[in-house]
């Protein structure tokens, strides 16, 4: 059964995205093939989006504005007002746009991962649980060491090629290291917000187009 185009761009994009993910070119009739090809170019998306959490030694402000191993003290708890506090009753905050970004990506079917080189593994895991973020991440690599190791393990676990990954990190050395694998990396020294995230998606598409033209 062929698929016809009825002039609904949103519907076309949804159909094309599903076909693209399924790699099903045969489902399209002749009249739709050209529009489908345009749609493929427009819908180039990462298959795995990776976020840094906390760095082991230098500032990491990717999803939250603090160093989990120095700026806050466990144990963490959620109060009746729904806010998370540390052992000294300091309010532990994340960047405002982060929950909306993660929720949107999760609903849209994206695979998400954490890659952090923090030594405060238990503390970082406690915060992601209290923030109710664990539901969003399929993969977690949280331990000290080179981010190259983290990404090799993510590649092995997910089966996603490096060139199909998008990574957000506030530490430049991580950007340099992970970029060497072919991952599209977005440097976020001020953390992630909706505008910065869109820039990352645009950078991914630009890199994807560049590879396709080679």
TrEMBL record:
One molecular function GO term is: acid phosphatase activity
**CDD domains noted in UniProt:** HAD_MDP-1_like (cd07501)
Note one Pfam family from the annotation: Acid_PPase
Recorded hits in Gene3D superfamilies, A to Z, give: HAD superfamily/HAD-like (3.40.50.1000)
User: What is the recorded name of this protein?
Assistant: Magnesium-dependent phosphatase 1
